[in-house]
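Quick start: read one record
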Amino acid sequence: MVKRKLPIGGVQAFNKLREEYEVYVDKTKHIYEMATRYGVVFLSRPRRFGKSLLCSTIKALFQNRKELFEGLAISKTDWKWNEHPVIHIDFASGNYTADNGVDVLKDTINSQLNEACDIYGISVGESEFISNRLRRIVVELSKKMRRVVIVIDEYDYPLLCTIDQPELNRALREELKGFYSVFKGCDEFLQLVFITGITKFAQISLFSGMNQAIDISMMQDYIDICGITQNELETYFKPEIDFYAERYGGREKYLSRLEEFYNGYYFTETKLSVYNPYGILHHFNNDAKFTPYWSLSGSPTFVMKYLEMKGIDFVDVEEAVMEAGKFANYKDNDIVLYPLLYQAGYLTISDYDEDTGFYQLNYPNIEVRKTFAEFLASNYSEAEKTLNNSISKAFVRSLQEGDIEKFMNLLKWYLQTVDYSLSSKITEHYFEFAVSNIINMLGFDCKNEVHTANGSMDTVILTRERIYIFEFKVDKPVEKALWQIDRKDYALFYANDGREIVKVGVIFSRELRNIVEWGM
């Protein structure tokens, strides 16, 4: 196979993608439906999910770059190919953390407003208030051409950068509030306002002065407006899948592994998931190596800042539960851990209870599970330094070969060398977390609190040949842990799986913070 030119590295310009690359996953049907239904739209998605490309696509559409859309879904609709002036503001281009952050914000907006003025040949001078200048530009452009389209990318970037600087954050928020208030007064001059970001925490106060935005982030019709569905993967990347499938034991096994590693993002209770484009594109471009490319692109610093501010305990992150309404019911600058991790891409919706209205959250896939484990290890313990290549290989080999004695000795040594100071609660859950964190770093599928008809298994590790069921106890006899596995018939949950089931009871010492006994 001649390797195709894929848009890796975060290609964000739609015209560049269409003119220079060989693959574009067509999202123009969603854009058509959104742009013909709504006037002000908000979309939240994790980083590296294609938000900036979506903004660029909308910009090209309203600039009437019809040649770029030939053969795409929107070209088969009744879309009116009229040119509208477009103001494109990207807030991710500024550094707002210094004392002059408000001035940087004004300069960032003004420089991009200047570009719009130059493109469309109008002259609107500087103003003390960016809101006044924006209003004049919108009016002038609508008089000269048609109603204006405003595209705002990464609206929350200035606020997330300064989440640990409350006074500066407040000043930026007030400046932005005035900026957004322009949209309400200029409604008659606006065709579409499209706003993207990672979080939704500032919506209520920040956007209070403008017309209510339609939040499509969790609407069923727009689940896959960003990201790649399974059907899209198999359609647009058929040459790559066909070429690499034999290496991984055939098409079915290869697709299953791709799904486990890179798929699994759910943005509503509907059972339609998507791949993060960044990971899957880099996988194909890098000779089909299963690597957590998303984490290699960097971790969002605002998550780290928030965790340091709040002193969060991570033991309860897995299998988190949250009321559906809380995802959007944010007060001014009031960030909650689970929605933050969901919007940052570390957690996704794994289940929904229609009777109670609660979402269950968990890691989307192996890539994210491994990424988050490494993130915690590098910031909250010495685990990342301890887990060198030779130790990692020994861990992996012991699980693959079913050598539980070797695995438990390695685990005991490992727990002795690291300190998960992120938790003050030395309970069974603490040890579940510590064990699952290292397993996740190794890239295995590890689940905590797996619910069955008779109870919940503490930790389950799944390898290709075996399923390990662990029951943890603190300062109790090992026989009690093994008795619970058999008494509650946990193995029955995997009876039809076909893999060997290994049952392990593990006893921890609260005082020693380590394993003191285990049995099978």
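The CA atoms of residues 54 and 226 lie 8 Å apart.
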